[in-house]
Amino acid sequence: MKKLILVLMFVMILTACGSKEVVIPVDSKQAVCTQGDVFKYIYKDSTVYRFYSNDVLQDSAMLNIVQTAADDYSNFEAYLDVTFATDACVITDYSEE
Questions:
Q1: Pairwise CA distance, residues 88 & 35, whole Å
Q2: Residue 82 and residue 35: Cα distance in Å, rounded?
Q3: In 3D, which of 82, 89, 96, 13 has the Cα closest to residue 49?
Q4: Which of 1, 19, 31, 50 could form a disulfide with 42 if both were Cys (CB 3.0 to 4.6 A apart)?
Q5: Cα-trace Rg, the chain
Q6: Which residues pair with 51 in a beta bridge?
Q7: Structure pTM?
Q8: Cα–Cα distance between 34 and 6 in angstroms, integer?
Q9: To 5 degrees, how large is the angle CA 35–CA 90–CA 72?
Q10: Contacts (Cβ under 8 Å, ≥6 apart) of 76
């Protein structure tokens, strides 16, 4: 019984540590890019905080793929310029909805 309680406590601790909420800086930008599908990025400078595809928030694995691709550029807007057609993205100031 003690082992079961220890395992449950360990799982609860890991779950609590893994559910860290991402804090998005106040002066972040939002890019909505349409090219077949609609992609939305919440970012500041070179860091992408959230990534949506067709209004569905993507998981951390997809976010890491986007971030890794963007890391090759000086900032995220440079990545968008190369990735999407001219005028495919509308960039605005981000505000919590």
A1: 7
A2: 13
A3: 96
A4: 50
A5: 18
A6: 41
A7: 0.76
A8: 49
A9: 75
A10: 29, 31, 41, 43, 45, 46, 47, 48, 70
